[in-house]
Specification:
Elements (H helix, E strand, L loop, with lengths): L9 E2 L6 E2 L2 H10 L16 E13 L5 E11 L4 E4 L1 H6 L10 E3 L12 H7 L3
Parallel strand pairs: 5-6
Antiparallel strand pairs: 1-2, 3-4, 4-5
This protein binds zinc ion (ZN).
The site of zinc ion (ZN) has 7 residues, from loops.
Amino acid sequence: MIVIENKTLYKCEHCRKKYEVKSACEKHERICSKNPAYLKPCHSCTNCKKVKTYVPSGYSDFYGNESEREVDILFCDKISTYVHSPKVAAKGNAFVPGDFSNVVFPDTCEFYTSNGTAELLAKQNY
Ligand SMILES: [Zn+2]
């Protein structure tokens, strides 16, 4: 076993994650779900609903046709668009369905209707 002493570690200000690389910690803090600045209206909005859609699977079937797979995705009824969190955007793995576009959660939204989650978190001093 190798014991490493006096090594600089970087800790997220919002959760308990530790990093050896400063840039990795900074990158995490931007998308840390415990970061108050990370929370967007869509996180606690009744218009944001989980639906099922189909995206290209990246594989071809026996006949050479590209197959599709069913995925869960968030859809906003008010703006008729798929939406995804900043975390998904940072990882670059948002789905690209054919029927509607898929955009990252906006910072503000005129159609925001609280589902009570934000108030509950505030009450718990989360
Ligand atoms: Zn964190």
